[in-house]
Write a structure and sequence with these properties.
single chain; about 100 residues; mainly alpha; about 75% helix; about 0% strand; rod-shaped
């Protein structure tokens, strides 16, 4: 039996174990990022783009935890609130229509 044939199974096992360790580390980091997303969404002016990105990364890593579901739900609610706030601001800026003005503008 050659030297390479004896060492190859050991090296393959080490590579597999290192890959699992890196996957677990990435998972823990993604879960920490999700907790950061929840904290960020609770701020007065959250960064929605960053929150969307972090949630997408967590989903890509295959994380299925309550933190992910909670962060996604909070993101939807914050987006809906921002949309309502924009609509309200838009309607406040419009001057009232006077009688006799054309309807187009």
């Amino acid at each position: 039996m050659s030297w390479e044939a004896m060492i190859k199974p050991v090296l393959d096992l080490l590579y597999v174990l290192m890959g699992r360790a890196q996957g677990a580390t990435a998972r823990r980091k993604a879960e920490a990022e999700l907790r950061e997303v929840v904290r960020d969404l609770l701020k007065e002016s959250p960064n929605l783009t960053r929150a969307e990105f972090r949630i997408a990364v967590a989903r890509a890593l295959g994380i299925t935890s309550e933190d992910l579901a909670e962060a996604a739900r909070m993101l939807r609610q914050v987006k809906a609130y921002e949309a309502r706030k924009k609509r309200a601001a838009r309607t406040e800026k419009r001057p009232p229509k006077k009688k006799g003005e054309p309807q187009g503008k």
